[in-house]
Amino acid sequence: MDLDRSPLAMPFPDLPAIAGVTLRVARAGYKEWGRCDLTYAELAEGTSVAGVFTRNVCCSSEVELGREQARAGRARALVVNAGNSNAFTGYRGREAVEQIMAQVAERLACDQREVFVSSTGVIGVPLPKDKARAGVSAALDAAECSWEDAAATIGTTDTFPKGAVARAVIGDRTVTLAAIIKGSGMIAPDMATMLGYIFTDAAVEPAFLQRLLSEANERTFSCITVDSDTSTSDTVLAFATGKAGNAPLASFDDPGADAFAAALNDICRQLAQLVVRDGEGARKFIEVAVTGAVSEESARKVGLAIANSPLVKTAIAGEDANWGRVVMAVGKAGEPADRDKLSIGFGGHWAARDGLPLADYDETPVARHLQGSEVRIDVDLGIGDGQATVWTCDLTHSYIAINADYRS
Amino acid sequence: MDLDRSPLAMPFPDLPAIAGVTLRVARAGYKEWGRCDLTYAELAEGTSVAGVFTRNVCCSSEVELGREQARAGRARALVVNAGNSNAFTGYRGREAVEQIMAQVAERLACDQREVFVSSTGVIGVPLPKDKARAGVSAALDAAECSWEDAAATIGTTDTFPKGAVARAVIGDRTVTLAAIIKGSGMIAPDMATMLGYIFTDAAVEPAFLQRLLSEANERTFSCITVDSDTSTSDTVLAFATGKAGNAPLASFDDPGADAFAAALNDICRQLAQLVVRDGEGARKFIEVAVTGAVSEESARKVGLAIANSPLVKTAIAGEDANWGRVVMAVGKAGEPADRDKLSIGFGGHWAARDGLPLADYDETPVARHLQGSEVRIDVDLGIGDGQATVWTCDLTHSYIAINADYRS
User: According to the annotation, is B89 in a ligand binding site?
Assistant: First the structure.
């Protein structure tokens, strides 16, 4: 099926080149489609890497290997296959990944553990080794391509290419972060998974880069949901080439570390929100802001319970200020809450405070807010200082159409 | 909106009278509808009671009070209000419940804690005391009604009345269990919650009745899901009048206790499945059978992860044997599983075994199975002896229509 461009799509931003990163794409032909489907990024020697991966226990070989490789902290290349996730394919799938790693390592004369591989698409079909070998060969010899080309090539059911940029000043150097991501279901393992790649010219020690990425992940990628279904392939990798020439960051004691952490967090949030904007069937972008929880973690869980509730998501799709459904979702989250201290609002207008509907509640401004394409749900639990913001989209007929009306 | 009768509906069964139980209905007019909406069941002196209630922390006053009353173990009456759930209404809602308890207790000359009240419908609107008082008065003086009348009167968005019957032999007596239930979303707090009532003429001590009901609940009501949203009002009560004259059951050492437990489990499973058959937008009844888990509890969690997955539910709606989505759901359940020992099948036909797609997999019989209205998903984790069966329905355009296309 051909999918219309999401009404919440954003134009592709102007991404600058990152010193030490070269992008190329090629056609491996994993599916019957007339487009490139293999993305190759070559990274300068000495590039640090960090990664966060799906917790789905039925994860792909790519995820298993990538987790191990990221621990070693060094990267020279990234290969992304689109159209076949290679998940649930046993030893045959693993062989295909190892073949790609060896092929690239031979060309770059590097350790094959420095070659990262991701795959996204249908599951249960081992990645065809012959197509992979020819595709990698073509990519290694291809001309350099743009960020937008790479962003489009890693996509599957995505309806628009997604990129983001951020900058930070470290000492006397300005470092740049550029990133691409794909994903439109939070995950449909036979057709869409979330894969994100962040490239920076900053010099950052691997262990510190991992710490910063893990922390950013908690407040960004872990705070989005489209349909509550967790991919077998979700992967976010951050590569730091060090070409900006800053004094390498190794801890928060280093000058500029806070600025870099903020920029990394910023670019992760941008990427995460772009995935929600391409959520399957999405017509409205929803921000759920939870305050007054016993902790940040508790606030995030309450936010996700709301963002994952089909009844809340369909209410927003129907532009219905149905705060009762939000109360229900708060209550089912399994987190500390006190019904009689709970307040619920939309777009800055409270509908209920301290466990009671507002006596003078005026639905007019709320109804107007819900008619827009950006909706905010405010929840104050009133029992602590923990807060968190999560992002999701509405649940519409198009989600059903995409996932039920067509055979995959 | 008027809802069409579910295509999975069952005819109302022939329920016998239960000695010690008298049913009456009346019109309180909680909503603008031309039907009875208040159900009253009078129970003989000495009736035991047990209950299981929602774990939603934003529960209604009815649930808070009912939980406390069930602990005392004795009941004389039940009042069910339909059209207003009285949830999230603070002290005003609680006053309305206490008024009903006092009014009935005065008529029966009993302790008001022996009068149980449930309410279901819109939330955030205190139950109107004047309508409740007039409705209860009318019910107390109304003629006896049938089980089907009572089942229809407790309903809200239900598309068919639901009842079940079971029998057990205790010593030389045959005891009978008759039950009614309502619910069509696993819960939409502004319009539908699950309320179930089981009546038996058996003599059962309250503490033992509670134990049996709690155990049955784990394998029946806790094993169904329509949309993963947990009501603020879910309640199941079991009343035992003792009129059958059997030697009272107090433990599993008593003759007939096993038979009664089996009958109670049977009637609970019937009721639970009826709710799924009236799931919002349901077109297919889905049984998920999980074997080979590390424990029964683990198997149940894996089953519910599958049954709650929007991607699995839309695949079944689309009659798509998408076992990759089942793999994904197993993996995200957070329970012990080994990708390489996992087997997935539909209707008794395996699609993947031991972590690999079947080489000679023939989709023809599977496709035929999925075209029916009763679908079975088989999952063998291959790592233990734990097993569980859960029930759900598919996720269709009608679910979106019911919950998004109409303002509530």
Answer: no
